[in-house]
Amino acid sequence: MDSNLAAGLAMIGAIGPGIGLGIGFSKAMEALGRNPEAAGAIFVPYILGLALTEAIGIYCLVVSLILIFAGG
Amino acid sequence: MARFAWVALITLAAIGALALFITTPPAEGASLIHVAIGGEKLLTVGSFEVTNSMVGAVLASLLLLAAAWYISRRSALIPHRLQSLLELPVEWVAGIVEGSTSRWRGYVALVIGLFLMILVANWIGLLPGVGTIGLKETVDGHEVVVPIVRPAAADLNFTLGLAIITFVVFVWWGVRINGPVGYLKELVGEPRYMAPLMLPIHLISELSRLVSLSMRLFGNVFAGEVLIATMLALTTATFFVLPFALFVPAIFLGLELLFGAVQAIVFALLTMTYITMAIAEHDGGHEPEQERREDHPESDTHSAASPA
User: Fold this and answer.
1) pTM, whole model, 2 decimals?
2) Of B86, B93, B117, whose CA–CA distance to B107 is shortest?
């Protein structure tokens, strides 16, 4: 019971990466709107940036999954 | 088209009627879903335990081997339909890697291999029957189904193994390009008197790549598994009230198709970027580098970002 509550609390940390992903995505779309020909050049840094931002949210997820499945 | 829609509706209704008979409400106290965080043991050969995620990984390897065997046997200069389908991802990833450094030929095979392996391993998890067909076993007093096949990336052992390969390769490239002394200098940092502070930071940042690579893939794929299992459990629980609720897990299956591909791209591109950073970290203008650039003038542009 306690570990389930802790797992829920751990997912509060997903707020930050959520905001960060939104900012990154909106900037990428702005860049695409300004210069549609640059879609190929934007793609790789965009995917990498989103992946690195998302990793922080995934850490929260892993912590809460460990708390649910392996915690006491 | 209309006939197809009727066939689909009748099939769906038949599946629903079947599900009515098969579905049994969970026993009192038992949880609605059962998802194990790691691979589960299927059988033991000597002291070697075969887990269901191993089955998934071997299945993905066999699929890729069969595709490679087919394409090497039957490839033609003018590709037929299946050949161009199989060549499409390879050419796409190779095109991206080509723009990274002038030495891209040294690691393009690793990047393509990682991409294809993770892609196939992820998409195997979406096939019907995977994760649902299994052996009945008794764990902690109540019966659970241990699936025979489990998507390989939903096991931390698989993703950590891939991340260790990536780690070894990019450290090897760094040592090879900069030399052992140059690599250590890179770890120590630029103002030499800051070394006691910077060395641990650099070491931790190198090692955190290992953790983040493996955890990202594992977390995404495992969360997808839990999501689909939860959605299936919820919709089978409400099946009597809302018969068409079976469409809901289908939406998430489509999403997982997208996420599986995205995570494969992310892992491959991060591998490429780490190797690119290890190569381009130190060369201001080595002689062989200059010569090679003249050979490939178009590969001068660095399309990869430099992540923190």
Assistant:
1) 0.78
2) B93
